[in-house]
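The data layer described in this paper is built around a simple, fixed record for each protein. We quote a single record here, exactly as it is kept in our systems:
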Amino acid sequence: MKTILAAYSGVLKGTGSSILSALQDLPAALWPCRSKMEKHLQVISVLQWVISFLAMGIACTALLIYMFCTDCWLIAAIYTAWLIVDWNTPKQGGRRSSWVRNWTVWTYFRDYFPIRLIKTHDLLPSRNYILGYHPHGIFCFGAFCNFGTEATGFSKKFPGIKPSLATLAGNFRLPVLRDYLMSGGICPVNRNSIDYLLSCNGTGNAVVIVVGGAAESLHCAPGMNSVTLKNRKGFVRLALQKGADLVPVYSFGENDAYKQWIFEEGTCWRSLQKRLQKILGFAPCLFYGSSWGIVPFSNPITTIVGEPITVPKIENPTDAMVDLYHGMYLRSLQSLFDKYKTRFGLKESDVLHVQ
């Protein structure tokens, strides 16, 4: 009984790894399968992120409005006033927290799939970078885990480099969710935010842009190796204007997290998805996973950070110059895919489809 109380005390006093270390002290009869508990913690860690991303912003907005109708209206008023004062913070580098980025919950998140980050070349702290992440998948699990947390050791692999994962600007208009995202170093994917990071924040910045965006998520499915890139040139023009080097990043297994009902082009359902995408800024995909529909399949995700492409600073690049570096980036991404595909479950005959 004393052992049980000691373990329970350890759980209350600590977080993350202390939970498991406390449970390890329990007698074997009381703790028959530690691996099952670890698996449950992994599922919970993934589920909390999915639910937070889908519902936290809406739920907290509704709660804030409700609080104005209760005796807690003063708390709601103070928070709203602070929200107005703090409105532009996401566009000005955000408010990252190394403590949040190093939460133990993210190691459980990482181990659920598992997710790995592989470095192929050094990134110099004296330069700024735009990392193009491919493919989008449904929730960009690889992008979040590798660049929004320290679970895969980004800062140790790339010392002196500060990653900023760019996501929908609309997320930063929602109370509480905006702060949760900023704590991980996540920023809005808009011109003002990226301009600030690449122009007013010194060097050693790496802005991670999921180039395919919402349109790409409509095509993702297990075994699908397709990226939306042919006409996506804005990030290349921005790199030229800021003199930021381009780095291709490919995640093998990102599309295997969920299965999706993909509607053919020209159908009413596909037209509805595209219309909602333009209105909402994201694609309403019909997907399902392993447990309860929203828990993803535990398939490995391996993220490869490719070789940087040195980009000169040109304030007003011509279309020809943009096309030149866009072509270089595309060839570099294809080369990265071809070099590593057979190491991570694909066949030599598999090709990367560029749309």
Notes: The chain has 14 helices and eleven strands. The CA atoms of residues 226 and 353 lie 5 Å apart.
